[in-house]
Amino acid sequence: MKLRIDLKSLKFKIWIYFAVFAALLMLILWFLQIFFLNTYYQEMKISQTKKIARTIMAEYGRDDLIENISALSYKNDMYIHIETSDGTIIFTPGEDDKRTGAVGPALAFMKEMSKVRNKLLKNQSNTVSIILPEPRSNMNTLAYGAFLDRTPGEEVILYIFSPLYPVESTVDILASQLVYVTIISLLLAFALSFLISNKLTRPIVNITKSASKLAKGDYGVIFEGGYYSEINQLADTLNHTSKELAKADNLQKDLIANVSHDLRTPLTMVKSYAEMIRDLSGDNPEKRNSHLQVIIDEADRLNLLVSDLLQISKMQSGVESLHISTFNMKDTILSILNSYHILSEQEGYCLCFQCDRDIFVTGDESRIKQVISNLVNNAVRYCGEDKKVTISLTEMTDYIRCEVTDTGKGIPESELEHIWERYYKASTNHSRNKSSGTGLGLSIVKEILLLHHARFGVNSVVDQGSTFWFELQK
């Protein structure tokens, strides 16, 4: 099997970035430990010497000065000497100090002290430092001088001599050690970056494979998360998307099936009655007119169905816009109920409106009329034996609430969330009005109220009736 490496893949880039980062760390370590060790050591030695000199200068004049200087000298491997400008020695290490060779300590640094004193006297500052080379031992010496007292003719000078040991051998040891450290570190970095990149990209690869199935129409595919919150959130979002696509696909299939059925029935009726007029009732005016009326009724039904479908499609696609204005909600409802007087007179329906004063709202008046008309039509179609429908309008602090209540069979709780879907009809609803609608009334209500950003819902109890309600902001 041929190994393929995708140079643009996340796995490869994470692996390379991690490895390059480790290599840079090793490179910095090599430079600091090998190339700059000697300079760093010398700078630290000078800094340490200056710090000790400041300590001695601060303690000059105290009774325990000599004791403290001896301790500092032995602890830090330094030769410390204090004398006046006329050669009077205030402090010098004892003759048993073996760090300066066979001769006494003062004699060993006599020439160096002379150099330091001459430079110090010529210098305007109170301190001076010199690196003194030693060709024989290849070990340089840091010579440091400072005035403890600069009174003319009574100057007190502090001398500090600190050996600068050669670090070449130490560098060689570090170099050989760093070779192993570098190899081990790089190997660990490559292995760790490979494991991390695999762990990170594996769930992404799985999600990509599932997305490919989703693109082919497999809406039941499950997206699995990984070890990270962001990937889990992505998987959850895609799972929700998959469910919504499956739901939309089912709704589309149901819509096509239902529309096909609803269109087929009136078209069949139109064709059948047209053939009857042609073959049977063409010469009989009474039958011909009856058959023609059926054709007209079915054509109206087709026109209503197509209009409702077109209206829903416009609202869902965002093409349909609202014409916002402020209007009297009470007058709007009264104008709607005027068209139902014939039902009250001829069929005994009782439409009761409860509102004691004018209430003004902001919205699209024609669309709100359509909402109320659809809800009232729905209530009239499914009301109980008493044929009573109640419309109530209540004003709250920030909004108004409109309710349409019937006394019909009610809707089971398990079906309440589905009644806003296209063509859905609750199983327990029994229509009193046999002239069925298009099955899109509540879907249109939902879309209009969503455009108004209104809250809406239904409360229903089986065998007691239903109350459809919505709330509009003032």
Structure, explained:
One of its GO terms (cellular component) is plasma membrane. This is histidine kinase. Its EC number is 2.7.13.3. Keywords: ATP-binding, Cell membrane, Kinase, Membrane, Nucleotide-binding, Phosphoprotein, Transferase, Transmembrane, Transmembrane helix, Two-component regulatory system. With 474 residues, this protein is of the alpha+beta class. The chain has 4 domains: 10-34 and 171-213; 63-166, Beta-Lactamase (2-Layer Sandwich); 229-317, Orthogonal Bundle (Helix Hairpins); 325-473, Histidine kinase-like ATPase, C-terminal domain (Heat Shock Protein 90, 2-Layer Sandwich). Helix content is 54%, strand content 17%. The chain contains 12 helices and 12 strands. It has helices spanning 10-35, 37-59, 65-75, 105-108, 110-122, 168-215, 229-281, 285-317, 329-338, 341-347, 365-382, 441-451; strands spanning 79-84, 89-91, 127-132, 140-149, 156-164, 325-328, 350-354, 360-363, 388-395, 399-406, 455-461, 465-473. The strands form 3 sheets. The chain has a 5-stranded antiparallel beta sheet, with helices on both faces. Helix 6 runs parallel beside helix 7 (229-281) and helix 7 packs antiparallel against helix 8 (285-317). The longest helix is centred in the middle third of the chain and has 53 residues, at 229-281.
